[in-house]
Amino acid sequence: MDKQYKAHELAKGQRDISIAEFFERNRHLLGFDNKRKALLTTIKEAVDNSIDACEESEILPEIIVEIIDMGNDKYRVVVEDNGPGIVKEQIPKIFAKLLYGSKFHKLKMQRGQQGIGISAAVMYAQLTTGKPARITSKIHKDEPALYMEVKINTDTNNPEVLSSENKEWYKEQGTRIEIDLEATYFKGKQSVDEYLKQTAIINPHVTIIYQPPKGDQIMLVRVSEEKPVLPNEIKPHPYGVELGMLMKMLEKTQTKTVKQFLREDFSKVGNKTAEDILENAGILSKTKPKQINRDMAERLIKGIRETKIMMPPTDCIVPIGADLLEKGLKKEVNAEFYATVSRSPNVYRGNPFLVEASLAFGGMIEKEGSVELMRFANRVPLLYQQGGCGFTEGVVKTGWKSYGIQQSNGSMPQGPVVLVLHIASVWVPFTSEAKEAIAHYPEIIKEVKLAIQELGRDLGKYINKKKKVGAELKKRSYIETYIPHITEALTELIDKPEEKDSLSKNLSVLLEKQRGEVESLDFDPTKNTEYDEELKKISMEEEYDEE
Amino acid sequence: MDKQYKAHELAKGQRDISIAEFFERNRHLLGFDNKRKALLTTIKEAVDNSIDACEESEILPEIIVEIIDMGNDKYRVVVEDNGPGIVKEQIPKIFAKLLYGSKFHKLKMQRGQQGIGISAAVMYAQLTTGKPARITSKIHKDEPALYMEVKINTDTNNPEVLSSENKEWYKEQGTRIEIDLEATYFKGKQSVDEYLKQTAIINPHVTIIYQPPKGDQIMLVRVSEEKPVLPNEIKPHPYGVELGMLMKMLEKTQTKTVKQFLREDFSKVGNKTAEDILENAGILSKTKPKQINRDMAERLIKGIRETKIMMPPTDCIVPIGADLLEKGLKKEVNAEFYATVSRSPNVYRGNPFLVEASLAFGGMIEKEGSVELMRFANRVPLLYQQGGCGFTEGVVKTGWKSYGIQQSNGSMPQGPVVLVLHIASVWVPFTSEAKEAIAHYPEIIKEVKLAIQELGRDLGKYINKKKKVGAELKKRSYIETYIPHITEALTELIDKPEEKDSLSKNLSVLLEKQRGEVESLDFDPTKNTEYDEELKKISMEEEYDEE
User: A329, B165, B363, B371: least CB-packed within 10 angstroms?
Assistant: First the structure.
């Protein structure tokens, strides 16, 4: 036998860690830090999946959400959709295996992207109540519905099917998930209610029928029958590809030559661009992809960087649009001024994205405290981790003072403003698996700042104008205070009590006329004697006119 | 053939996502957001592993860190230790497979805990430079060293060995990793230099020999030959176990009865406690673990919660200790006041942890700006994500004003303070896989606040005293200004120029005496005439004494 050293002893402890075990212990990374958030995260993952599935099948989504209080901090959550359903073989994996799904490998704008969310909810539910997830799925009106109970084996990250049977279901098609979990239900900020309301606002084609644990059913009925444009899937853009990724692509490609590889496996590379890249890289067009070694691949990267290539196609991301965004904000917030911008797409690490922003000012918005920020990513509301969000960095690093909004250095601006920010991308970079905040990519933060600046300029103009009008109104009100007294005096003076009403009216008209003409008319009615003079003169003219 | 519906079409897109692919795309979750951070994260993961390995083998760690600038934003990183080495079979998995290692399944205080870090660095290196990691390992002076080149297959999350051979190595034993990656090197805050310096301070038994890419080698020599106490591994504490986990443990246990299960698979459960739990749960002691169904398990959880159980053992966590922590801070910061506290262990979700805090005030510390916070977790410096850290929440939510430190509501306190916070735990909950910030568990935040309050009270007393002394000193300095003039006058008056020096000295002694006695003596030397009188009187007495 070989000699045994410390290294051998240590080797015995080494072993695989299942991703499910990992997240079981690190559940706060998935948004299950506490009972309150657990409820929100569970519903969010289920609803996002439902809307994604409906949209992909071009069905107008109708989502039923039900929360039932089972006592002792246990809740039953039911989410049901009218989507395409899920085939039998896929149900266990989709609901009870982390890192499984159809979205991760597609460069396409979708709500879900990781293949973690709903399985994480199932895992948390079984961890806290020991109960399996109950899934019902019906893929066509002519097919029976299927009912399944599934659990996740956290040691292996594989699903376990506890029961599987056909059953009657009133729906033509759809998916229903029912899970029991430890949770607490609150209303207000960061609540399920808030999430569903914001979801309805930002997805006007979605109907949500929501039964909270207490109180009446809430109907959030769609306001638009128009299905959103389906985003296209895209190929990676050359500018976003790094050496290691390129080498992996070269190894896997079905193409015969490196030129063909560039043209077919990337977006925005035509014949000419491919030739330019290869010339800049000093590589022959006919070289087989498999022949490209590390050094040649490095030259290829250099070639790509030195070649001007068109920006990625943008039909892979579908903006909400300025109109719709502003309409949504108006529904939510009663303000006096609104401005909205939908920026053109840009790219971070090869991924197209765009930023949209909408701003409401004044009116019924709380005057004290920080600007209220509503954040959305691929049409999903983000309710947690505002402090750690790239959006927030963009807001804080914009100079709001020049728009007439208070701000101390490096802080959130203060004042009656609600700001909506939306990022649409084929791959939204989140700061954690819980998908609560946007990572701090400089390209994204820059776009956020540019969007806010566009809105800010309009806001600044409005606030300036408002200040002027405000000053003007103040003056008018001084004068108006005196009109009854002057009327009284004049009536007595000319001794025509029957003219009192028309005199008062004429004085107001006069004020209107005068103030309208001379914007910066600056006199104090309590002191200025010319005022009375003028009033007299005009009122007499009016009298003559009437005769 | 069966009919094909939309669900079938969608099913075709469903597939497994490898954890490596997942993190390849979400690399910012692992601390590889940008080139600068990539360098720090790589070195941090390698150094943390090296120190862990040495400590576990009771070797005083001597770590060599070298950064070589290869041009074009490429750097070669070398980290070498004098640890136990790694056996051949384990090298590929440890360095080129995510979620693999010995630490995850142990409830024990260690720097590493996830089995992700170093493989993530290898993955990032190969992604950005296409090059494999080069590992050298020697497990004993009588064995040859082994040299291996490994890559990670991100499609499968499995290692690939490109080369493996024996070779000569000057060391008796140890591990050396060499990787090339895209990076940028900076000095200053959040730099490798800073991380290594802080590591040396908080680990006084570690020697680090550091060659930065520019400039001289930096030697951070150990100041203590004492190895830190080895923390013990513990079993889970009943209070931290949830239903799902309990059911999993019941399924896996080797024990024969539920009573035996409670006693042997948990910490702090003796015979009496086990009986109490079972009585509260209404379960018979002899019940076989496999017979416990979901409902009974739920009763068992209830039984546990209703039974008083001792806190977990605390020899699984080893504090740095108040002395050492303060010594470290003193080495780093030249201040006028220091205070340190090492709190007793507490528990979050069944995991023992403790918080230590050390504070420096005044002296050479920058007077303007926020309090400087230095954060450590299991003796590892945390340099990023301060804003999102539970430590920061604890600092911000403590009322600093009562200690004489400025603070606006909900903000970092302002003033000449450096605050060190350390959490030691068998499982540190981080906000992301990059392990940059502590998650916001209420139990942890509470301990942080209590620690700061302890220090704050002492600081408050010091600042108060300082204010008094300051006022006193100001008065003294007034008086002192006048001593030479008075001496001059008195000398002339008594016409004894030879006594001038002793007169001046006596006046100072008198001042000392008087001010020492009457702390709040409050007069203005420029106005008060009694002062001169008194001076005269005393100075004459002194004269007499001298004769």
Answer: B165
